[in-house]
């Protein structure tokens, strides 16, 4: 039976959010806040605006369990799409079921078949055998009892397949208990990463060692840890010098990747936040690989699956730090099944193509896709905005946007405009975009309630509606709070006073 357990999915409820109005004044009813981000502007040589050409391939752990005929037909399908990468599983529990007794048969077969088709092999080394698993947890899904023993196995793999396997991932989704039982442990994983990195490099110095291998989950007790928080702790535990790249699995079955900008903890926002952590920790030169991405046909129809995959293959390369993409997976286990795990394939179980197979072919044939909106944003080269962090996405149905390290750029009806990222974050929570340049510490938005956002590094970003805005004068300074509910009204604190607004009497300015 497959060693791969069911994937945990982020369950995000996307509810409509309206700006609450009280006689023209905004009362806070924001979207959930995204995790705090530490933003660092990059040196002026940044502002990279050209989409990268990334390798595209498949993640197909089922090849380990296939007959020779099925395995070869599967690799032929990969080649037919133009794929250049394949992610293969090397299960420790399958190779070294008994300590010091090795059966390399299936790994040899899959690596040989991939190499014969000139596919670049990425190997994920996972699955603890019973003799090597941590105490009181099941084999396969349990973490190793000893980082050293795991590293010894990695060294044997890297030595055996030197020149045949290009990159190694250290474990799989350690931020979930389903793969790192009994519970996610960033410190324990970092210990594993350090040991494996040194062993793999010792056996094959040319190999790329990929750390993280993180799932797009949210914090849920001892079951899952948000990948941003997990990565932050990895850096605190010294992971930086022990990975050549980071990998991430940005699944979200109900939302296309590029549609996640306004959704807290979406895979897109998790990607951006992890990139900011990488920059802050001196890892700006490293890529984020998407070693699993896919969409099951149970969450949408076949056309919808193709649209999700086409969106990802177009938008992921718009980020200059994007690494290779591996689509999960080649072929359905059982077409028509109600189990999402059975219907991730871009081919059906009878080997016929779904529309997603053509979507993969088309994107690979195009090279680095250049969407029309990306072409327009690539002309925005103001170095003060910093490096590109996000693809070009829809901030509203009619306004495109792109986040960079220091500012978010918007394509508005009146032209390109930018907001400091704290202002952009605040606006996003209300579903708003700017209508005026940011100047003198504030920026107006397209809200029917006349929302203005004030910001400085010292005061933070705060918003208020028309009733407060019309009474404000520069003598008050910048806002120090959002609207605070009062009896029949609201109050906003400023640097040099405050404004109250009452439904019956309107606004009153109090200078201090």
Short structural summary:
With 512 residues, this protein is α/β, with parallel strands linked by helices. The chain contains 12 helices and 21 strands. The protein has an 8-stranded parallel beta barrel, surrounded by 5 helices. The chain has a 4-stranded antiparallel sheet with strand order 11-12-13-14.
Describe the overall structure.
With 512 residues, the protein is an alpha/beta fold. The protein folds into two domains: 101 residues, no CATH class; 320 residues, Glycosidases (TIM Barrel, Alpha-Beta Barrel), CATH 3.20.20.80. The protein has twelve helices and 21 strands. The protein has an eight-stranded parallel β-barrel with strand order 3-4-5-6-7-8-9-10, surrounded by five helices. β11 and β12 form a beta hairpin. α1 packs parallel to α3 and α4 runs parallel beside α5. It is elongated. The N terminus is likely disordered. Belongs to the glycosyl hydrolase 5 (cellulase A) family. GO terms for molecular function: hydrolase activity, hydrolyzing O-glycosyl compounds. Keywords: Glycosidase, Hydrolase. This is Cellulase family glycosylhydrolase. Pfam families: Cellulase.
